[in-house]
Amino acid sequence: MAAAASAAQPSAGGAPATEGTKAKPSCAGYDWLIVGAGFAGAVLAERIASQRGERVVVVDRRDHIGGNAYDHLDAAGVLIHRYGPHIFHTNSEQIFSYLSRFTGWRPYEHRVLAEVKSPATGETMQVPMPINLDTINRLYGLSLTEDDVESWLASRAEQVDQVRTSEDVVVGKVGRELYELFFRGYTRKQWALDPSELDKSVTARVPTRTNRDDRYFTDRFQAMPAEGYTAMFRRILDHPLITVCTGMPFEDARRRFAFRRLVWTGPVDEYFGFRFGKLPYRSLRFRHETLDREWALPTGTVNHPDEATPFTRVSEYKWMTGQTHPKTSVTYEYPSAEGDPYYPIPRPENAALYKRYEALADAEADTWFVGRLATYRYYNMDQVVGQALATFERIQKTVPREAAN
Ligand code: FAD
Ligand code: UDP
Questions:
Q1: C-alpha of residue 247 to centroid of ligand 2, in Å
Q2: In 3D, which of 127, 69, 56 has the Cα closest to residue 103?
């Protein structure tokens, strides 16, 4: 592995400690360097240290652990998510019980309203999203039943022979009017692409319902870490064989530490020096605001799908965290081409470019690529945890354990 071969001996002492990190003296080499202290990196560090007894150094160029799930108290003392609202949900008992070793949970089912103009009256209203029976009845002033609404939607749905794109998925289910109201503008803002240019998997994340279920997710397990994500990450990484250095990019870490094996959770194209060109990622700018009142929104998130509003959604954390506080904090999300890479962009040409990087990644000795950016997959947190646990199983089968040093 090129990275390990050129690695210099480490000097004593980690980077200065910042929130959520531990600076431990490091005067020997490491078995593993893990780049990225998000879900992918933290889970692998924990597994490798606790199950293999090997020494791990985790570095992150940000000044904190937790990756995009990082949360902290803002100036007013309200717990907020620096990189936008993160709601945990999974159908996997294995993933939920693994994380439960490091956190208690607060049951929480996320609910979202979309602010739209009724096509019937022109009135602006906030209605349940995903589209459900109540959404239709309120928008059109109807009193359809669950049985009625299926045929009502079927009569508006367009015939789509092959569902390929994010437009096909929606117009094939609810027709063009509802597609334009709820999906077209939001998607064009979020991705700077028309839904017809995006893989079907993107809008398929948001189903259409004919019942009155107004939860955003229907997974078996839906809960927030009781003391927040950062507290959970602190516990995941709290192991005598794990050293954490925040504020440290890979380039510094590879010079500073000797290591035998590498886990990379950053962007895969960056690792390979953008050899085949840049993989497209979409970014966001977050506007965090604290309001001098107890509550701001009628629910955890309000979506603004119209193209004229520059942000896509606004979220209020106290719904999710259950925190009691006389003030409240909200975050607006403004999609952007510039900034940290948050979203891989699912479309065929990007998948083809990723395949070329994946082939390089597969051939890279003693190096594992894990997580949303390293495998260019639009994964939720639980999927990243699942991928990290599966990677660990592969490591167990294929990598001989280091003798204790
Ligand atoms: P990350 O969390 O991105 O961690 C990678 C880390 O690697 C970063 O901290 C980065 O600084 C570091 N890094 C990269 N390159 C280098 C380098 N060269 N040197 C050093 N460090 C480096 N999922 C859900 O399940 N529910 C949600 O509600 C949800 N909401 C989301 C909202 C937004 C706005 C976004 C953007 C994502 C959301 N997600 C949600 C997805 C979730 O954030 C990801 O699935 C998860 O955080 C990915 O973990 P990861 O470890 O793969 O990557
Ligand atoms: N989407 C939309 N309107 C909405 C909500 C979602 O068009 O009101 C589309 C949009 O393309 C978005 C995708 O569905 O990017 C997935 O939505 P989700 O809420 O899962 O996005 P995330 O939380 O990952 O940003």
A1: 31
A2: 69
- One-letter amino acid for residue 399 of the chain: V
Q: Which helix (H) or strand (E) holds 148?
A: helix 146-156
Which stretches of 194-347 are DSSP H helices?
Answer: 200-203, 229-236, 250-256, 268-271, 317-321
CATH 3.40.50.720 domain position(s) in the chain: 2-65+237-277+345-398
In our burial notation (b when 16+ CB lie closer than 10 A, e otherwise), range 154-169 reads eebbeebeeeebbbbb
**What is the CB-side half-sphere exposure of residue 331 using CA atoms within 13 A?**
22
State the Cα–Cα distance between residues 177 and 197, nearest whole angstrom: 19
Tell me which residue has its CA closest to atom 7 in ligand 2.
183
What's the CA-to-centroid distance between 66 and ligand 1, angstroms?
A: 8
The candidate with the shortest Cα–Cα distance to 86, out of 99, 98, 70, 73, is 70
pLDDT digits (tens, 9 = 90+) for 132-189: 999 999 999 999 999 999 999 999 999 999 999 999 999 999 999 999 999 999 999 9
Burial level of 42, CB count in 10 A (0-12/13-18/19+)? buried
CATH topology of domain 2-65+237-277+345-398: Rossmann fold (3.40.50)
Give ipTM to 2 decimals: 0.99
Answer whether 59's CB lies under 8 Å from 82's CB. Answer: no
Query: Hey, what long-range contacts does 175-181 have (CB within 8 A, 24 or more apart)?
Result: 177/119, 178/131, 181/116, 181/117, 181/119, 181/139, 181/305
List C-alpha distances in Å: 363 to 166, 208, 358: 33, 42, 9
Structure token pair of residue 358:
């994946």
CB of residue 380 inside a 6 A radius of ligand 1:
yes
Please give the DSSP secondary-structure letter assigned to residue 9: P
Quick one: which atom of ligand 1 is closest to the CA of 342? Answer: 36
Q: Which ligand gives the minimal distance to the CA of 333?
A: 1
User: What pTM did the predictor assign?
Assistant: 0.94
From the CA of 185, give the closest atom in ligand 2: 7
Contact 284, 342 (CB under 8 A): yes
